[in-house]
Design goal:
Layout lengths: L1 H33 L1 H4 L3 E4 L2 E5 L39 H17 L22 E2 L1 H15 L3 H10 L1 E2 L10 E3 H13 L1
Antiparallel strand pairs: 1-2, 3-5, 4-5
Helix pairs in contact: 4-5
């Protein structure tokens, strides 16, 4: 029995050091050298303080800000510790009720807006943490944000355009607007 336990413990210790210390150290070192911004959480800083990550959505509810996709995480929105979608199917009455309530909220925030409500403003993403909205969702909110901030629509449009990211490698995904980065730029534009 001792002949079997000793090699097993040595192998266990060796694999623990290899996979628990050496491999993570190498991967962390390569990530820090090649992708330092991403390896450190893609944090966005304003006035020397971290205000969020460009990879995780935040709950903006004020009319002076662009709103992101709804979050299905609990107990609070955009809770990275509880990432996950709502798991409600398209025929589920609870999803239909939630979408109707979100549409009503958007219409109440901007009653003069006659544009169709983009689907990404009323449905949660699979992770519940999506930091981006479609350019159509940004366009839908442009009038409300410009009016509340007393900015010209063309100025807000320029900010949307500056914060719109195209398809990855020109073919993958859809164009998107990072809500936190756009709202940070709006804050700067409003103070000048």
């Amino acid at each position: 029995m001792k002949q079997q336990i000793r090699p097993a413990l040595v192998l266990f210790g060796l694999l623990t050091v290899l996979t628990g210390v050496i491999y993570p150290a190498i991967v962390t070192g390569v990530a820090q050298a090649a992708f330092p911004q991403q390896a450190n959480g893609s944090l966005l800083v304003r006035d020397g303080k971290v205000v969020g990550s460009s990879l995780i959505g935040q709950n903006f509810t004020g009319n002076a800000y662009f709103w992101g996709r709804p979050s299905a995480t609990g107990p609070m929105p955009y809770n990275a510790g509880a990432s996950g979608g709502s798991n409600l199917g398209p025929t589920n009455p609870a999803l239909a009720d939630a979408v109707k309530a979100r549409v009503a909220l958007l219409k109440a925030a901007d009653p003069a807006n006659t544009l169709p409500v983009p689907v990404d403003l009323v449905t949660a993403s699979a992770s519940g943490l999506d930091p981006d909205i479609s350019p159509a969702a940004a366009q839908y909110q442009l009038g409300r944000v410009a009016a509340v901030r007393k900015l010209a629509a063309v100025e807000v449009q320029a900010l949307i355009d500056a914060h719109t990211t195209g398809r990855q490698w020109g073919a993958l995904g859809e164009p998107r607007v990072n809500v936190l980065a756009l709202n940070m730029a709006l804050d700067v534009a409003s103070t000048h």
